[in-house]
TrEMBL record:
Biased amino acid composition, Acidic residues: 84-98
Keyword check for Metal-binding: no
Family from the record: Belongs to the class I-like SAM-binding methyltransferase superfamily. RsmB/NOP family.
Record-level Gene Ontology MF annotations: RNA binding; rRNA (cytosine-C5-)-methyltransferase activity
Residue intervals of the SAM-dependent MTase RsmB/NOP-type domain: 280-568
Entry protein name: Nucleolar protein 2
GO cellular component, one term: nucleolus
NCBIfam families named among the record's database cross-references: nop2p (TIGR00446)
Binding site for S-adenosyl-L-methionine: 372-378, 396, 440
InterPro entries in UniProt: MeTrfase_RsmB-F_NOP2_cat, MeTrfase_RsmB-F_NOP2_dom, Nop2p, RCMT, RCMT_NOP2, RsmB-like_ferredoxin, RsmB/NOL1/NOP2-like_CS, SAM-dependent_MTases_sf
Length: 674
């Protein structure tokens, strides 16, 4: 996605990322987005009022039918969100994405008027900006306060103005919504007992082809009516109409209204009950909150927050689940060009991108492989959690993207990482024996449609054959690269920014089938929906419950999937290179893992959030550990040359220890003696 699309979107004040909506059962689909239809309806009404004809042609299923709603007041002096450093994780990402930051000339972040902003800034300024010394004296975030204190104080420090604004906004929105509902009830059949779902033909029986703004609103009404009927079919369905008729109608309307290809719309629709599907499609029309991740190799979150607040950034902690994320509400400075950004104190990173790394829970001094690493959002997070110790191999098959990865590694002060440029399929032949492996796989990007709307139409059936095939081969390579006997690890995390079952549960099931030496384990993540154990006639291993799904409508984060495996034995010889076409067990098939008892494996190394660090800003090297590796390498080299490592290295060691040692420990000959 180029910058243009992103820049064209105004970032309204987003709701906070909500991990409180933890739902263990898919059926408990949250009604969290009940507000959404209202919002959309309001947007349309505003368009209609403004006389803005919405592109009727879009209803012929081209592109997005609803133009982005312009803010009512022009936004001034506010700087928009730059693209995330890790933006568009899908493999379709272009080099533009690697630039990752937006320095100048961007649209406004938020739609508040200058006056409003001035007020807020003054407000926060009186608390924070102008009284820097006071704040520091008070210790906005003292070393010993607990997390909740920290979050409360951060919020209190800059959010007062914001919350007043939100209150006002909410009051206005509520009033508008009420008026609209009343207006809508007059025009539509919503108020009726049994909604008569609209036909595709006009009164004269001719097909309605060229729909305009009003039609679009009617289309939306039909969509919501259809969903209502599907939610209570027995009582609300019209006589003689079947459930599948209503479903087909819903699919058609989703394609027309949101601009999806029928192929993809159906795939996504099948993931949810109708009401939740609607919430998902709606959420894909809204940008996700802008989030930055504090680079704890360089700074603390509280210091970073303080500095950014002083620069006019309105922010708050991303949620209790992360100690390093900050959600940005508004900014008067370009977030991709602040001195702190350039000094590597933070990286722009979607909140959901934190999750795979948190699940991986890398430990200090481990050897970690990041198989598909560019542009490095997750690699640099791993490095921070490892406090720059141990060794990370950050691999990406795309050389251009690997350059962006190197850039981020340098900017963020990562010093324990080696970048390599192989197809990850070549692992473990290139290298194996890792304590942990992250496979953030190339995917279709159906979780990030809000960022890249082209996904709506450019994904074909071929993509959903090609990508899962690649993902399945990659996951086997990831498993085979891990050292099952690692004292601290032996874990593999598989993640995608897609929500399709083909790219997630089916890939995981394939891995379980082909590698009986791995088990799924809990991700350790505190929120997220359970992965599917059944889907459209397919049955997956019950442990798939331990995988986690993230949706924009449920948690206000990008769509994501995270699975964590523990490798418990070497890969059996007969499993190596196993190349089944489809590892998914159908209702009739028995999974090869079904008969294996599911022992419980718990990653004893907990997710060590990197909010607090001790010692130097740059972690440090473990000299002793390094020495061991250097010596091992030297010994191997000497042996290859046909020399006796003991003799050569022993001599060198004595020399290094100084003349006294040479005399004492030597062969009795003093230095210089022949
Ligand atoms: C989802 S993105 C990775 C994002 C990255 N983990 C981050 O957090 O910044 C997927 C990456 O996989 C890379 N890729 C695609 N096929 C690959 C392969 N066969 N081996 C290694 N990398 C591959 C793409 O170049 C792309 O950079």
């Amino acid at each position: 996605m180029g910058q243009g699309r992103r820049m064209a979107r105004k970032q309204a004040i987003p709701p906070p990322l909500d991990e409180s909506l933890v739902t263990r059962k898919r059926k408990d689909a949250p009604a969290a987005r009940v507000e959404e239809p209202k919002r959309k309806r309001r947007a349309e009404v505003r368009e209609l009022k403004a006389g803005g004809a919405v592109n009727g042609g879009a209803l012929k299923s081209k592109g997005r039918p609803v133009k982005p709603v312009k803010p009512t007041k022009p936004a001034k002096k506010v700087v928009p969100p730059p693209m995330s450093d890790d933006e568009i994780d899908s493999d379709d990402a272009t080099d533009d994405d690697l630039v990752g930051v937006n320095v100048t000339g961007l649209d406004a972040l938020g739609s508040a008027s200058e006056d409003e902003l001035d007020d807020e800034f003054h407000e926060s300024g009186s608390d924070v900006v102008d009284s820097d010394t006071d704040v520091r004296k008070m210790g906005m975030w003292s070393e010993d306060e607990d997390d909740s204190d920290i979050e409360e104080k951060l919020t209190a420090a800059n959010i007062e103005g914001l919350s007043r604004k939100l209150d006002m906004q909410k009051a206005i929105e509520d009033a508008e919504a009420q008026a609209e509902l009343e207006e809508a009830a007059l025009h539509t059949n919503i108020a009726g007992d049994k909604p008569k779902v609209l036909d595709d033909e006009d009164d004269e029986g001719k097909p309605i082809t060229n729909l305009h703004a009003q039609d679009l609103q009617l289309l939306r009404t039909r969509l919501t009516d259809t969903i209502r009927v599907l939610g209570d079919f027995k009582n609300l369905a019209e006589e003689g109409r079947s459930r599948s008729e209503y479903k087909a109608q819903m699919l058609k309307d989703i394609c027309a209204y949101y601009g999806y290809s029928e192929f993809l719309a159906e795939k996504l629709l099948n993931l949810f009950p109708p009401q939740e599907a609607f919430a998902f499609f709606e959420a894909n029309e809204q940008p996700r909150p802008v989030v930055i991740r504090t680079n704890t190799l360089r700074t603390h979150r509280r210091e970073l927050a303080q500095t950014l607040i002083n620069r006019g950034v309105q922010l708050e902690p991303v949620g209790k689940w992360s100690k390093v994320g900050l959600q940005i509400f508004e900014s008067q400075v370009p977030l991709g060009a602040t001195p702190e950004y350039l000094a590597g104190h933070y990286i722009l990173q979607a909140a959901s991108s934190f999750l795979p790394v948190m699940a991986l829970a890398p430990q200090e001094n481990e050897r970690v492989l990041d198989m598909a690493a560019a542009p490095g959002g997750k690699t640099t997070h791993i490095a921070a959690l490892m406090k720059n110790t141990g060794c990370i191999f950050a691999n990406d098959s795309n050389k251009q993207r690997a350059k962006g990865l190197i850039g981020n590694i340098h900017r963020l002060g990562v010093k324990n990482t080696i970048v390599c440029n192989y197809s990850a399929l070549e692992f473990p032949k290139v290298m194996g024996g890792f304590d942990r492996v992250l496979l953030d796989a190339p995917c279709s990007g159906t979780g990030v449609i809000a960022k890249d709307a082209s996904v709506k139409t450019n994904k074909t059936e071929a993509d959903f054959m090609r990508l899962p095939h690649l993902q399945k081969q990659l996951i086997l390579a990831a498993i085979d690269s891990v050292d099952h006997s690692s004292k601290t690890g032996g874990y593999i995390v598989y993640s995608t920014c897609s929500v399709t079952v083909e790219e997630n549960e089916q890939v995981v099931q394939y891995a379980l089938n082909k590698r009986p030496n791995v088990r799924l384990v809990e991700t350790g993540l505190t929120f997220g929906k359970e992965g599917f154990t059944r889907y459209m006639g397919k049955i997956f291993h019950p442990s798939l419950k331990m995988t986690r799904r993230y949706y924009p409508h449920a948690f206000n984060v990008d769509g994501f999937f995270v699975a964590k495996f523990k490798k418990i034995a070497v890969t059996p010889m007969n499993a190596v290179g196993a190349n089944g076409v489809n590892g998914v067990s159908s209702t009739n098939e028995k999974s090869s893992t079904e008969n294996i008892t599911q022992e419980e494996y718990v990653d004893k190394a907990p997710i060590t959030e990197d909010g607090e660090k001790e010692g130097s800003d740059f972690g440090g090297w473990d000299e002793e550990e390094d020495q061991k590796y250097i010596e091992r390498h030297q010994r191997a080299q000497l042996r290859r040359k046909g020399k006796n490592p003991k003799a050569v290295l022993g001599k060198a060691k004595m020399k290094a220890q100084g003349p006294e040692n040479e005399i004492v420990k030597g062969s009795g000959k003093e230095k210089g003696e022949k």
